[in-house]
Amino acid sequence: MSDILSTPHFETALARRAAPAGLGFAVREMTDRGMIDLRGLASDRKFMTAVKGVLGTDLPKAPRSAVAWGDIKVLWLSPDQWLVLCPRARAVALAAELTAALAGIHSQVTNVSDMRTVLRLEGANLRTTLAKGTSTDLHAAEVKPGFVKRLKFAEVGALINIVEDQIFELYVFRSQADYVWDFLIAIGGSAAELHLFGKQSPA
Amino acid sequence: MSKPRRLSSGGSRIDRSSRVSFTFDGKLMSGYRGDTLAAAVMANGQRLFGRSYKYHRPRGVIGLGSEEMNALVGVGTGARHEPNARATQVELFEGLAAVSQNRFPSLSFDVGAINNTLSRLFPGGFYYKTFMWPKVFWKHIYEPVIRKAAGLGVAPEGRDPDSYEQIHVHADVVVVGGGVAGLAAAEAAAVMGARVIIADENAVLGGISDLEDGTIDGAPQAEWARAAAQKLYDAENVHVLTRATVVGHWHHNYVMIAERVGDHDPAIPKSGAPRHRLWKVRAKQVILATGALERPIAFANNDRPGIMLATAVRAMVQRYGVAPGEQGVVFTNNDDAYLTALALKEAGIAVQVVDSRARADGALPERARAAGIAISTGSVISAVKGKLGVEAVKIASYRKGQGRVVSERSAPCDFIAVSGGFNPAAHLWCHNGGKLTFDEGLQSYRPGSHADAIVAVGAAKGTMALADIMAEARAAGEAAAKVALPKAKAAKLAKLAISEDARKPLEAIWFAPATGKYNEGNKHFVDFQHDVTVADLELAQREGYESIEHTKRYTTFGMATDQGKVGNLNGLGAIAEATGKTIPEVGFTTFRPPYTPTSFGAITGSLTKKLFLPVRQTPVFDWHMMKGAVFEPVGQWRRPYTYPRDGEDKHVSIAREILNVRNNVGVLDASTLGKIEVKGPDAGAFLDRIYTNMMSTLKPGRCRYGLTLNELGFIMDDGVVVRFDDERFLVHTTSGGADRIAAWLEEWLQTEWTDYRVFVTPVTEQWAQFAVAGPRARDVIAALKPSFDVSHEALPHMSFVEGTLGALPVRVYRISFSGELSYEIATPANHGRALWDALLQAGAPHGILPYGTEALHVLRAEKGYIVVGDETDGTTTPDDVGLSGLVSKKKADFIGKRSLEQAHLKAPNRKQLVGLYTENPEEVLPDGAHAVAEVKDKPPMKTIGHVTSSYLSPTLGRSIAMALIENGRARMGDVLSFPLDGKVVRATVVDPVFYDKEGARLNV
Amino acid sequence: MQPRYSIFSLARNALNYHKDWERAWRSPAPKAEYDAIIIGAGGHGLATAYYLAKNHGITNVAVLEKGWLGGGNSGRNTTIIRSNYLQDPSIAIYELSRSLYEDLSQDFNYNVMFSPRGVLMLCQTEHELRAFKRTAHANKLAGLDCRMVSPQEAKEILPILNIDPQCRYPVLGAYYQPRGGTGRHDAVCWGYARGADQRGVDIIQNCEVTGIMRDGARVTGVETTRGPIKAKKIGVVTAGHVTTIMDMAGVRMPIESQCLQALVSEPIKPIIDCVVMANTVHGYMSQSDKGDLVIGGGTDSYNNYSQRGSFPALEHTIAALVETFPILSRLKLMRMWGGIVDMTGDRSPIISKTPVDGLFVNCGWGTGGFKSIPGSGWVFADTIANDRPHPIAEAFGLNRFAEGRFIDESVAAAVAH
Amino acid sequence: MLTLVCPVCGAHGDETDFHAGGQAHIRRPASHDPEHISDQEQADYLFTRINPKGLHFERWRCDRGCGKWFHAARDTVTLEFKAYYGITELPPPDIMAQARGAWADYFKARQKAAAKAGAKS
Ligand SMILES: Cc1cc2nc3c(=O)[nH]c(=O)nc-3n(C[C@H](O)[C@H](O)[C@H](O)COP(=O)(O)OP(=O)(O)OC[C@H]3O[C@@H](n4cnc5c(N)ncnc54)[C@H](O)[C@@H]3O)c2cc1C
Ligand SMILES: NC(=O)c1ccc[n+]([C@@H]2O[C@H](COP(=O)([O-])OP(=O)(O)OC[C@H]3O[C@@H](n4cnc5c(N)ncnc54)[C@H](O)[C@@H]3O)[C@@H](O)[C@H]2O)c1
Ligand SMILES: Cc1cc2nc3c(=O)[nH]c(=O)nc-3n(C[C@H](O)[C@H](O)[C@H](O)COP(=O)(O)O)c2cc1C
Ligand SMILES: [Zn+2]
Prior knowledge:
The complex is a heterotetramer. By secondary structure, chain A is of the alpha+beta class.
């Protein structure tokens, strides 16, 4: 028993799910991601300065945007809410640093590294494939790398972040990861692959 | 009747080198790739496709495509059967199995046809006048017979093996319809750089351009269409959809397209592609280029197999190389149908024209005359001979407005092509409130004004001359692109040289007279599928069902699967003539989605089976599965209800789990409990508004049970609030309430108390949380190398500590829902499984066992603790359940406080929570059983309250129940009666705390 | 006097090709004054007029309708009739209504096709099962014929039901009311209209009420698009449009108007012989005598007067029904539509006097008032005739909101169709 | 299926990305003077709603965007959105001017109160 406690088993939501085959894109769970939910007022200069002091970067103020600095990345969620990403191993310490730096400033720092499952999707046709799950216009001009948005995906709430043109990260609640995984398999089969716009050959 | 009718040449759509065999009603037939089922069956010499709805009259193909309302067939077998498919739209494939519908025992001999013989008894709406006597006959005889006769096809058997999906798309311009108008509009918009989606319900673009005359740049218009289509396929910014019906138009230009991906080739769905795909398109601009639908002219017995619309006859010959018969009559009131006569003549089929107009001297009639086709002007078809087909017609002379014909002559023929003009397909225009105007030239309604960003072009707008269509469509495409992309440059498309034989005006004729009057037994059908005749419509007017909406509902006119696409205007025209009104005065019925019937599969998309709704899983869900837990849905979660061991009955396993908690120790997966962190200088004040009790006075490190009410004063949720430090609280909610309460807190902060400095972050899923409950709970924790003191003194009841168990970070709350010594231990979710395993391992020597929600419920009932949703139901106040002690008297305000003052919420005879002991300790009152004021021999009996929870308590070795009883607290010791089917159970009112009233077991 | 309808009169009229049928109701011009005016010729308004004439001998009555009679929600509902409500006041009015339905065709000699084919309400969570057990117990003691059935029994009643315990929302049991069912909604309106008309009531269509005339605290008549009409008693029965009229009278109502949608499939041979409701997944279905499946779900969440709903509300209903009845997948949606329903704060109706003398209101039937047409008309006519609430109407007064005396049926885990 | 635009974050999307929160500008009496609320006032607060056929003012939440509540002006017949504005704000003056019936009365009262408060300070 003592081994259970000294080297505890770390088990993410999809640890027991086999990687799906036959999809038009690659998908895997990112297990090494630390996540901190940060609340504060963008209008509060003290807050912004204190955060920058810890993270080394300004918090993004533009809706649906992200900034990265070293191994830290911050996703905009709301005018008073951000998701700070860091290596999982750093999350506890980083949350503590933020909490300390923000002492006395109206804010909230919550380590939520285990709350969401991060799915990394890679493929050339993701925008179209994911459109089978969300009404958000992923083809819109402003939807470029760096784009962040909460959205409805299939029947659950999710967060999308475009990392590179062909790499998307989908954040879903841990309890719903299994469902989303199944949904991706259902919509992503290569037989159902669909190319939107572009040259077509008549049926 | 089975003489093959395939012409030796012709057929632009078929591939004569590729034979396809299929069956119709079990009969093996053959056709060509490219055929529709309608064409192929007719090519095999069969015209009879089905039976009508009410009179079971024999029916054949009428139309060209999706407007077909007669030739409805069942396609496919077993679980892949689709009823009511339109034979004109079904594309032929090898092995296709189709069956006719609504006939017994066979298509050509159908006993239901007796209805036709008796039809004189069955005018429109006859059933409202009869079947009332004797009363009992309705349920047992009349209705069962009516129901059996009703309906068309049969449902499939079993679950659909195919899959479906949906996709959301955003486009600058959506063009509906791929005829020349749609193609031209799409091209113009695309050239300007707009993202264009063009959808057509047919397999091939081009609309009816291949059936029409008229040239563009010297070539037939169909060739221009082919080239234009190719350009769209090639364009980077255009998506072309075929076999894709735009089924609806909703608010803010939400356009829905149902694409039949795999109906024409069963290999496609079998490969894993969806059978249908539903496109949900947000369009900045919509261009309707849906063309026009040909309408018939009603005449006596105008429903016989072999009577088709003129364009449909043309398509049979020109697209499929199928002769509709050997000798035909074209019956028309317009010039366009002369193209059909010419096509027939060219194919070597004998034809004459009957034109209701006094003169037919347009370019097309002249061409027909020149070709040697006989034309009878000022004439109508007044009668049809033949039952299962056409054998001859009577042709009579006619002057507009003539009520009955006087002289008629017989003409042999075996098919009729009829055209009464064209109605713009304005259905989609109306779905979201577009207005129609009546066009005297067309004698039809066409699009008028619309509040949305939508325009109609081409025949859909009522524009019929090719040159006008092209100019209008291009301009609309450009204008749409311009609005969507204000910076785009003009399209500057090369001018088109267009020539076309000019059409002379049509002359309205809705139904042709016969020798008798139309309402004297002649059947002039206007709604073929539902067997509604002109006489039925006229009867409805006379009986007072004058509003067109009444007429529709009284006669079922336009309510069939085609929704009146073909015949509705004839009906309106006939009503106008019968009542002396104009057609606009008659009005029209509301157009509603979908444009054509759409599979429920497509509307469901991929959300079937486990994808229908998520099952939320806790971090130890796999363990529960592995242990064979029986699950209970709680919101979207599935929680273990109990863990039966091999062969164990549920009751046995639940009792075992309960006793183990009371005697040893149990562990429960409580991860689903809602958890919300609330922080800020005003957090305490804020929670004071939310909870009935005081939260601002809670000491750091301590826990307090709280109640939340809605503004009506009724209990909404409950849970333990923990204070971490001055500014930080953790709020627990019920599993089902987690999201609701988080949203509730945000709402009040954002909308009411906007000056409170408080942040709220839901963290339910961050934590796996397990309750370790039982007299040996402390021993289990102690065995896990806690970094903190677990003694009663250091960690008393209702306190909290954060630390580690071994290497696992944990938050430990000493709270209890079982009445035993109990700890709820939370660890980050990805460590959940490790903690769970560790607890089971460390607890093994102490007899630890997992317990499920049912054991939990019994344990808490033994203690008299309420469950929100069981003891409360949305009309329950804190006092009702004995919790008035939790309602602060000191606070000026909290949510729900003022409502608690309303008279009825303080009324003296409210139901109050009590415990119950049945007289027979083994008798378990059923959930929801009601007590009565007085037992009577039979109902009604006045009830005074009901059982909210009821269990066999293994701890007490007897049944216990909780109940809400009028004035219950004043009835302690009274015996109440619960009449149940055939017996009365009696129970004594007792205190709802059944076990350990002093709470001694908690404080150890 | 109108001839009676029967198989004999049909046969007689057939001889003359049905040319001698008389109007089912007249189309009179409005008189200058009536004893009572009913605003709104929906089922409730027409039934009120009918019973005013029949039960109370008040025949100098006009029913004013802005469009065509029966064209409101009464003409666009899913026709479910049941009385298995939880709260006593609800049971009283819905059971009165259901029992009147039993004899309605004979009462006014017009076949309304009341079809007590049984209503089956599925329980798909433990919570729902408990709630329905509670309702069943209450209903039995109120004298209703009903019972709880097991999944297997439910499948016997409804063979196409999916009772796989592994499915997303397994069927755990069901509440069954054998004498619940459906009726032919249009015929209910037409039958009441014909019956009222025969007794002298003027039904005036295409006559929109545009103002309420008052003399101090009393009503004196209405303004309409066809001129002013006087009356000392006015009953407002305009469902989704009730606030537009009550605003004219200066009475603010606890009502919001929302769109509820329904749909029908293509007709198929009978596959379901009862009404089935699945409240957890917000779907309900029956098969009409014509063969189409009649399906409904929940309301849109925002106010709406357009009679056109939003697609997502129905989409989820359809997904749920396909899950519960997998053979639906290859059947096809034929038509969908919306109606504007009048939602009260506690989702129960209002049958009440108002602060204005002579002004009565009957509304708030929301998503579930087709089944209550006969009962509601009965007690509302009595209320208007006697200028005091009928005993069954008492609980449904406007005053209940200020007293906190809600009649909240949602606690029975039931949607109210 | 409506489309909306959130005035806080600019997100636009389908109605399924938003949450409809009913009538706007409802004053909660207990937040102000909990001691002096008549039964009728409380009932009005809880249940009496402005339910116009035409221009209406509502609360919505940007559910799948920034999570913030905001106000919107919408026509309940055409379902067109006429304006979006902050959750603590009044509608733009031109839209407010189009309000009818109970809404017109309400805004008039609000403006009068604001003018009075302005005059005092
Ligand atoms: C889709 C749907 C499904 C439903 N399903 C069921 C069900 O299964 N079972 C059930 O019991 N109930 C159901 N209902 C509810 C039921 O239809 C209604 O509660 C009931 O029909 C209301 O009848 P009514 O007479 O009060 O109103 P309506 O039938 O709406 O009549 C009101 C009339 O007032 C008229 N009017 C409005 N304003 C004016 C004016 N200014 N001047 C003159 N006239 C005016 C209207 O034109 C209308 O004809 C459903 C409702 C809908 C919309
Ligand atoms: N001069 C005349 O009297 C006259 C009369 C009739 C037709 N015409 C000819 O009619 C044609 C008119 O061209 P047009 O492009 O306006 O019409 P069209 O009929 O050629 O094309 C309309 C297309 O839209 C499709 N469609 C309709 N509703 C749809 C929906 N909901 N979803 C998807 N597709 C849908 C139709 O199937 C068809 O393919 C020209 O070829 C013209 O010469 C002329
Ligand atoms: C119980 C019921 C059954 C219906 N059956 C049909 C039907 O078979 N065919 C049809 O076209 N419409 C049917 N409808 C819908 C009506 O055509 C119509 O859409 C509805 O009454 C609303 O009116 P509106 O669409 O004119 O606004 C039915 C409606 C109801 C209430
Ligand atoms: Zn936003």
